[in-house]
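Human:
I keep going back and forth on a fold encoding question. Comparing notes only helps if you start from a blank page. Show me how you would write down a chain together with its backbone fold. Write it directly below this note and I will take it from there.

Assistant:
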Amino acid sequence: MPNEVDLYDGHYGHLDADPLVAVRRETYDEDLGQASWITLAEAREFLRALELAPGLSALEVACGSGGVLCRMALETGASCVGVDINPEGIEAATRRAHTLGLASRVSFQLADAGRSLPFPDESFDAVFCNDSINHLPGRLEVLRDWFRVLRSGGRVLFTDPIVVTGQLTNEEIRARSAIGFFLFTPLGCNERLLAESGFLVRDVRDLTEAVASVSRRWRDARGRRRDALVRLEGEQGFDGLQRFLDAVHTLAAERRLSRFVYLASKP
């Protein structure tokens, strides 16, 4: 069944279009090509938690257009690899790495992260996944594969923006998952699955306010550019994404769907 709202193909396909650049600049503290809830300030917190440094290697699962991973490489000196299922996202990420002069230690591969990752055991010192684990089926198998590709002592950090912390109607669930496959996860489930996968859970923090804030700014910035975006996306596409952002904001602001960050390590 096709997605009701085409977020990712439209986003990556028109990444450098003036209206979308203007929306990102107004939504985030810095334009990294985001189509999620992460800001640069938050990304820097995550990088500190992953303890990356020159000589170490990191994998980003569902890297999108590569903005966060390139920033990771620039600020930590680590060698970085990103994987994503969207070909246009990988093409945009590869262009970004070349433009920034990072091609010698940043690379991107097309891969379905819902399946076994195309890397040998113990390939990385860190695994990072921002606002995307909810798109991957088989959470336990995914975490076990991340455990496999991590070296001993390595760290994993992921955010899950679809943790159920209140009551939801069927229409709210439909609106919130209009952009594709979503896995809605009960509170406490991620900690249990991390432990079952062999990880030591180090930290869990509530970041729901970021979703409420970013989704509001994103929706409002798009609304101020309606005519330009309708020409780019079509009226149905524009209105569908606005409804999606409305649902995201409402459920986060009312704390019925929450976003948590999880930090764990491999013994």
Observations:
- DSSP finds eleven helices and eight strands in the chain.
- The chain has one domain: 30-209+255-265.
- The first strand starts at residue 57 and ends at 61.
